Backbone:
């Protein structure tokens, strides 16, 4: 035979077709929603219109107060940038410097004379490398600025711009003394120079000490959970009345020290320190700030341990005025016992209530001045002559 053909009985043919039909029905069933959607036009209305808006009513009193704080203070917040010559390029006019933006941050208007306050770390490179600073106001106008004073120990810098007095709205000043944990606060920043960030939170803690990336220690800081965005360093921290109570300086997201693990924690320099340091920087135009070359234990630690007043030395730097005067910091004894450092009770006969009070007294003098410290060590009181040095 030249070929082969298969034979299917009528029953086999019917079974095959029945199987195909069942499979098609199953396929239709599984895709029924999709198939119906091809033909079902229900749900569509060519005359559809926006829904009527429900009247909201007045904002709550606390919302109105928050909005008023922002409207009141935001014109006082500025954007700060530093620029440096990165390379030179050839042009029709010869070699021209190509500038690159390096540091950015926020700041606030101190007075109508043109003084701007920001963090020292925002403009530190401009101070060290003679770079340029620029300040942009809320209306977008930009001005060249120069650093006239810097206090690296407190992370404060003062800039000066030549701007019309009518365009400068000084920030209202409050007090950080008497702040309470749980008190409501607001943070304003101008991180990109085009828009503002505004966040709220509470005072989470007081008298914090942190170590900066370059190894410096900042003392007596306000800790807050108010969100502080990148580039908002140098912006104001406000109380519920819209008064300046601090300047944001750092956001920690890791280990701060052995006792504090941070999770988006913000810190601010108390306004009482700012209000003391800034006039001195303006008057002295960047003259060296006095120092004894020693770090202090946080007041909170002293009070918890029953020491009601005074400041205690934590560590004395080698070859510092404190070291030359024989002052001592804490000591680690055998079996990990800790011996107290020297407790400074008074300076030139003026009682010292705490760390901020001690810094205030020092700033009333200049490097080279000789002061008399009343010190307690191991229960004994005695006087020590200390010749002030300068902050590096």
Residues:
């Amino acid at each position: 035979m030249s070929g082969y053909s298969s034979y299917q009985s009528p029953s086999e043919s019917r079974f095959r077709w029945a199987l195909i039909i069942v499979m098609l029905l199953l396929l239709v069933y599984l895709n029924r929603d999709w198939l119906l959607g091809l033909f079902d036009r229900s749900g569509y209305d060519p005359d559809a219109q926006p829904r009527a808006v429900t009247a909201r009513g007045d904002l709550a009193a606390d919302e109105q107060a928050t909005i008023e704080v922002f409207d009141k203070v935001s014109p006082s917040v500025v954007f700060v940038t530093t620029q440096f010559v990165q390379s030179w390029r050839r042009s029709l006019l010869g070699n021209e410097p190509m500038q690159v933006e390096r540091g950015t941050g926020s700041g606030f208007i101190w007075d109508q004379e043109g003084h701007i306050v920001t963090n020292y770390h925002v403009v530190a490179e401009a101070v060290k490398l003679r770079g340029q600073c620029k300040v942009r106001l809320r209306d977008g106008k930009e001005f060249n600025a120069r650093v006239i004073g810097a206090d690296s120990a407190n992370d404060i810098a003062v800039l000066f711009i030549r701007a019309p007095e009518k365009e400068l709205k000084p920030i209202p000043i409050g007090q950080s003394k008497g702040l309470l944990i749980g008190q409501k606060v607001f943070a304003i920043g101008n991180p990109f120079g085009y828009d503002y960030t505004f966040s709220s939170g509470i005072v989470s803690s007081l008298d914090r000490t942190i170590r900066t990336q370059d190894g410096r220690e900042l003392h007596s800081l306000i800790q807050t959970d108010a969100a502080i965005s990148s580039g908002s360093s140098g912006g104001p921290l406000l109380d519920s009345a819209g008064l300046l109570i601090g300047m944001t300086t750092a956001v920690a997201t890791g280990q701060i020290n052995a006792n504090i693990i941070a999770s988006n924690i913000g810190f601010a320099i108390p306004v009482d320190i700012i209000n003391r340091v800034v006039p001195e920087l303006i008057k002295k135009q960047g003259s060296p700030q006095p120092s004894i070359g020693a770090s202090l234990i946080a007041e909170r630690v002293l009070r918890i341990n029953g020491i009601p007043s005074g400041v205690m030395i934590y560590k004395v730097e080698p070859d510092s005025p404190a070291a030359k005067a024989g002052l001592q910091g804490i000591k680690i004894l055998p079996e990990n016992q800790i011996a107290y450092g020297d407790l400074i009770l008074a300076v030139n006969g003026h009682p010292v209530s705490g760390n901020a009070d001690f810094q205030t007294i020092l700033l009333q003098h200049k490097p080279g001045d000789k002061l008399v410290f009343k010190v307690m060590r191991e229960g004994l009181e005695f006087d020590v002559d200390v010749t002030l040095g300068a902050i590096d």
Summary: The radius of gyration is 34 Å. Residues 84-101, 253-262 have pLDDT under 50 and may be disordered. The chain is about 20% helix and 35% strand.
